[in-house]
Amino acid sequence: MNSTLLLYEDRVSEIEFYFSIMFDVENRSGKIQTLDNQRFQRILKSNLLLMLYNLVEACVVSGLMEIYEGVQNSQTSYKDLIDEVRIIWSNHEIGQLYLSGAGRKAYEGKVQDIISQVLLNQPLILQRETRRFSGNLDARAIKELCDKHRIRYVASDDSGCLKTVKEKRNNLAHGDESFGDCARDMTLIDLEHIKDEVVKFIKDILDGMKVYSDNKRYLLQNA
Question: Rounded to two decimals, what is the model's pTM?
């Protein structure tokens, strides 16, 4: 998980730097001046929410990819994996056909291929499904994702900060809100609280992923 933790540290550093600029603008320290600092500040606030969502999705996806690479590099077969990972693999294999609208013959061929891989103890490869994640990750979705892999974690988002970030990100991405309006009612204190909660939540999740990856908890013998 070293690559993911480095990614986390880099993105958090970027966010903290950006927040410090927002603080300078709002407090008119003289470091940054525009023709309309209030409008500029509202746009900065909205951008911070995008940066926070970028941190969430980038780190969760990267963490899972490192786990999947660990499974692949260990040359692990179906019989050696925990039930949760077996289900993820088989659902993905069949799901690819479902998405393509394949017919009965293709399904029969895929089932035979799955059976052969299992019986011959061939190493399994877990694939990333980007479509599942884009724009949909909040605390509930991330916890469900971890539970699906049997990744243990101690993380909470009692204030609903990740849900707020996800919804605001989607409003911006879909054009439902402008950058000038999206976060206009949020104070710097509000945003600092959201920032700190999101950063802590993701770190707690990554800590759980690291234990899972380092100890190869995806293997039956280590579960």
Answer: 0.88
